[in-house]
Amino acid sequence: MHHDQPNNPLHGVKLETIVLELENHYGWEGLAERIPVNCFRNDPSVKSSLKFLRKTPWAREKVEELYVATFSAANPWKKS
Question: InterPro entries, from UniProt (predicted)?
Answer without folding.
Answer: DNA-binding_VF530-like, SAP_dom_sf
